[in-house]
Amino acid sequence: MRLFVLLYAVLSANAATIPQRPLSSGNSGTPLPLLIWHGLGDRYDREGIKEVKELAEKANPGTFVYPVRLSEDGSADQRATFVGNVNEQVEYVCKDLASHPILSTAPAINALGFSQGGQFLRAYVERCNNPPVASLVTFGAQHNGIAEFQACKDGDWLCNGWEGILKGQTWTNFVQTTLVPAQYFRNPDDLENYLEYSNFLADINNERTKKNATYVENMKKLEKFVMYVFKNETTVVPKWSGWFDEFNLTSAKRTKLQDRTLYKEDWLGLRWLDERGRLVFKETEGRHMTLTDKLLMDTFTEYFSKRVDVLVAKESLDL
Ligand SMILES: *[C@@H]1O[C@H](CO)[C@@H](O)[C@H](O)[C@H]1NC(C)=O
Ligand SMILES: *[C@@H]1O[C@H](CO)[C@@H](O)[C@H](O)[C@H]1NC(C)=O
Ligand SMILES: *[C@@H]1O[C@H](CO)[C@@H](O)[C@H](O)[C@H]1NC(C)=O
């Protein structure tokens, strides 16, 4: 860990004076740090997240991996996956990363989002992106929202406690600022309420009349935006949300991203990325969050292996 502090400290101290150098190829240089934002009900310090971290380090030795957390206390971090204002949570993460001794001095970072962590990392890119994300990979994300709330598992006290409130009162200010999944609820048959009251998703998807140009600019800085959906996904309804497709639950009609206004008018820069081969649609076997070691290793090798010459000035990185 100390090594990173030193290397990146050299980088930032000399950014203004060191002549521009190309990105190093081959095995020299340092891999970009990697963020992992876990999903609903999970916590940053769980064993499973540590295993993913170890795989990332194995795939690209020297990677500094940072599991995103909303509190250093793992149980508080877990609670924040259900309860809280997502806008405030993203802002908290923005501040945490921008002031992190290692991450804040990295020329760029990579990002891996699990389930709802996928759209939250996208919000980080759109709103803050400091340090900037090079490649964003999401697994089973709800980029186009959820149109149904999932039944709680037995004994899930936190979930059970909220379920009743969620169902009838999705669009109340209280629910929209308190209950995390409600903030990415989106039913295509009730877009009116969604556009008016959605606390989070309608904004980061730039679906309202007034568009935020910063969101588009920041998305265009992504080198790769890779979206995985699970073939046997049943937790995320509709599963195509992971690809920004719209799905009518009544008629079972699926409208692909490329046929949506969001893409045609390029509200998020997705079309721009797609036309440059930088938007990647992937499918993988199994149900929600079936992550095999092989799948993760392949992903890390393919998308997170780029190494940077640490002497490259921050501004000169071609993202
Ligand atoms: C657009 O988003 C940026 C980043 O979150 C924010 O600072 C800015 O105020 C927003 N602009 C508008 C017009 O809402
Ligand atoms: C969804 O399908 C139903 C049944 O065909 C239709 O009545 C409804 O208008 C559709 N919703 C949207 C948003 O297209
Ligand atoms: C996925 O679903 C198909 C069809 O229902 C089934 O045949 C297959 O075994 C499932 N695969 C996994 C990995 O769950």
From TrEMBL:
UniProt GO molecular function: palmitoyl-(protein) hydrolase activity
Bilayer-spanning residue ranges: none
Keyword Transmembrane part of the UniProt annotation: no
UniProt-listed InterPro entries: AB_hydrolase_fold, Palm_thioest
Superkingdom in the source lineage: Eukaryota
UniProt enzyme class: hydrolase
Keyword Signal in record: yes
Record protein name field: Palmitoyl-protein thioesterase 1
